[in-house]
């Protein structure tokens, strides 16, 4: 935690984290009481040397207590000046305001109920402290929680600790760059970035054809016309392929949010803050895929398997990427999800990209149903690399059973012509390989 001092006045009334009662420090109070007893004993026993030894600390303690501040200590934790959500760096500004007479404040900073730092800072009026933390997680999370306690002159008195002040933020998933992505079997529209088999404008050369009503004069190929019809009785025009767009629907399975430690999968323990979970990987993967398609002029939508709410319809442009990233950041497990009776509704001929851990049959069933409906389906496995060194014999057996069932589930998806990508193992190369495959395969919609 870094700090910068600025002059100012105490916080305004109603600021969160106020505390107004000042109390003597226990050690100072006990020491003053002991010295007062020594002073009385020396006075009554006729021992001026003993009385002098006790008089000094008593006078000093009384002087500090008379000078102790009066008024509340206020603390607020606001947004940092250079806060950039999504960069893995969370910042905040802790504003500490003390009444006149206070000289310092003890600041205790925690994150996720774990102590981060405990420092004593000098404060005169108001001081702004910069709080910075690092995270590998995405979505709503805590930046920090601070407890502040004022310190009076000579550290003889302290204020009542303020109420905890907390700042929360939403970390957007980063949208990484992908060199190439697969396309759906059918393209839509008359504009876009991909050449379609239909005649139009903007794409590659389709053929040279005799002029017909509706052809533009600027499309006349005079060289071909001079070679085939020197008398100009017939004009020949160059025809091109139309540029079409792809429609992609991203389906995120937010029902599971598991980390690399299998012991935490049961839900009794939460994953460690320094471990990225499966939902973090799903958010990052979906953001990267969305950016890859939107940069090419395609339309991308978003749906969630874990909740019953209206999906984000397909759209294009930079603002659509911002909507998708924000919607992904807000996805999280919400209680016991209901069983889906049908797959999410997607436009005809769209590409479906499903992000899941495939620890149960729900996501696999949705992928198979979408493939039987004729869509090209890409299943992205977002389960993190599992750590097994600390597991006991029973945990190893349980994990092995889960892994065998999951492997069978993924093999069944491959048998149903669902293309599989593992995000933890060079996903860019896998997606580029799928992009090079023929878009139109015989028997579309029928398992190979």
In short:
The protein has helices spanning 26-45, 48-66, 222-228, 278-295, 318-330, 361-372, 393-415, 427-436; strands at 2-5, 22-24, 74-79, 89-97, 104-111, 114-122, 126-134, 139-151, 157-159, 165-171, 194-210, 236-244, 247-252, 299-304, 312-315, 351-356, 376-381, 419-422. It is 27% helix and 29% strand.
Could you explain how this protein is built, in words?
The protein has 448 residues and is an alpha+beta fold. The chain folds into four domains: 119 residues, Immunoglobulin-like (Sandwich), CATH 2.60.40.10; 47 residues; 49 residues, no CATH class; 190 residues, Rossmann fold, CATH 3.40.50. Helix content is 27%, strand content 29%. The protein has eight helices and 18 strands. A six-stranded mixed beta sheet has the order 15-14-13-16-17-18, sandwiched between helices. α4 links the parallel β13 and β14. α1 runs antiparallel to α2 and α4 packs antiparallel against α5. The longest helix has 23 residues. The two termini are 59 Å apart. The N terminus and C terminus are likely disordered.
């Amino acid at each position: 935690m870094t700090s910068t001092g600025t002059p100012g006045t105490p916080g305004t009334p109603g600021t969160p984290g106020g505390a107004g009662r000042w109390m003597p420090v226990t050690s100072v109070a006990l020491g003053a009481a002991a010295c007062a007893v020594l002073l009385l004993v020396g006075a009554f026993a006729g021992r001026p040397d003993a009385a002098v030894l006790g008089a000094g600390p008593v006078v000093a303690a009384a002087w500090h207590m008379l000078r102790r501040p009066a008024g509340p200590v206020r603390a607020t934790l606001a947004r940092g000046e250079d806060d950039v959500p999504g960069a893995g760096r969370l910042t905040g500004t802790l504003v500490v305001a003390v009444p006149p007479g206070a000289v310092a404040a003890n600041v205790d900073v925690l994150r996720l109920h774990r102590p981060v730092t405990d420092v004593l800072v000098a404060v005169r009026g108001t001081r702004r402290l910069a709080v910075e933390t690092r995270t590998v997680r995405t979505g709503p999370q805590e930046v920090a929680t601070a407890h502040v306690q004022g310190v009076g002159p000579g550290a003889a008195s302290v204020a009542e600790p303020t109420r905890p002040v907390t700042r929360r933020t939403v970390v957007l998933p980063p949208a990484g760059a992908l060199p190439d992505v697969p396309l759906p079997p059918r393209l839509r529209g008359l504009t876009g970035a991909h050449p379609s088999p239909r005649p139009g404008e903007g794409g590659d050369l389709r053929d040279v054809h005799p002029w017909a009503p509706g052809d533009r004069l600027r499309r006349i190929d005079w060289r071909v016309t001079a070679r085939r019809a020197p008398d100009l009785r017939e004009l020949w025009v160059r025809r091109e392929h139309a540029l079409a767009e792809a429609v992609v629907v991203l389906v995120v399975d937010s029902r599971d949010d598991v980390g690399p430690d299998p012991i935490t999968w049961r839900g009794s323990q939460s994953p460690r803050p320094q471990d990225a979970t499966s939902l973090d990987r799903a958010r990052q993967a979906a953001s990267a895929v969305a950016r890859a398609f939107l940069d090419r002029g395609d339309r991308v939508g978003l749906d969630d398997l874990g909740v019953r709410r209206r999906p984000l319809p397909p759209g294009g442009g930079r603002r659509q990427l911002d909507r998708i990233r924000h919607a992904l950041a807000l996805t999280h497990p919400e209680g016991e999800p209901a069983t889906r009776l049908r797959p999410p509704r997607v436009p005809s001929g769209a590409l479906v990209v499903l992000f899941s851990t495939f620890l149960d049959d729900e996501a696999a069933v949705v992928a198979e149903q979408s493939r039987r409906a004729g869509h090209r389906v890409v299943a992205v496995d977002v389960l993190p690399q599992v750590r097994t060194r600390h597991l006991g014999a029973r945990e190893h057996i349980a994990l092995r059973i889960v892994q065998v069932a999951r492997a069978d589930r993924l093999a069944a998806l491959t048998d149903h012509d669902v293309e599989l990508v593992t995000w933890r193992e060079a996903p860019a190369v896998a997606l580029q390989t799928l992009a090079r495959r023929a878009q139109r395969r015989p028997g579309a919609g029928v398992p190979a």
